[in-house]
């Protein structure tokens, strides 16, 4: 009968250890800060060529995050911009004169073209390295007018 009693005591110790570990993990994450969140009010955007469009997002997190936008299409993936609001802004050379970035994480594309169609991936990373991702699908319609 002794081995069964020992086994039950071991199981209780393991359960107590797991509960303690879970409580410690929860306390640790609460001490570090609030959860990172990202809100995308319009995940699908339709527009025509030559329009200026806003890829609107809003985030919440403790401290100032690093925000990054990429464009992906059948032609591949291209980094558009990365910035830390109030600190620095890096815009890729191919988009230098075509985008505006905003502290709330939004990105404005100026005079869109058919090639701008595709998925826009936004990444928000807080000071603890917690990262959240979002996607906006942009459809650009129409033909580009060639002016002489």
TrEMBL record:
Its main location: membrane. It is found in: Membrane. This is Immunoglobulin domain-containing protein. Pfam families: V-set. Residues 1-33 form the signal peptide. Keywords: Glycoprotein, Membrane, Signal. It comes from Phrynosoma platyrhinos (Desert horned lizard). InterPro entries: CD2/SLAM_rcpt, Ig-like_dom_sf, Ig-like_fold, Ig_sub, Ig_V-set. It comes from the Eukaryota. PANTHER family: SIGNALING LYMPHOCYTIC ACTIVATION MOLECULE (PTHR12080), V-SET AND TRANSMEMBRANE DOMAIN-CONTAINING PROTEIN 5 (PTHR12080:SF93). Residues 42-141 form the Immunoglobulin domain.
């Amino acid at each position: 009968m002794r081995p069964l009693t020992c086994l039950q005591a071991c199981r209780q110790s393991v359960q107590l250890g797991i509960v303690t570990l879970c409580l410690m993990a929860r306390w640790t994450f609460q001490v570090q800060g609030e959860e990172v969140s990202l809100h995308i009010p319009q995940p699908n955007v339709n527009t025509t060529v030559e329009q200026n469009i806003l890829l609107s997002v809003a985030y919440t997190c403790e401290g100032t995050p690093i925000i990054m936008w990429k464009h992906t299409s059948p032609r591949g993936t291209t980094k558009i911009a990365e910035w830390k609001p109030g600190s620095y802004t890096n815009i890729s050379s191919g988009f230098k004169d075509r985008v505006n970035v905003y502290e709330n994480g939004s990105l404005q594309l100026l005079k869109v073209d058919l090639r701008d169609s595709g998925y826009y991936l936004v990444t928000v990373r807080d000071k603890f390295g917690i990262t959240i991702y979002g996607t906006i699908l942009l459809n650009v319609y129409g033909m580009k007018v060639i002016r002489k």
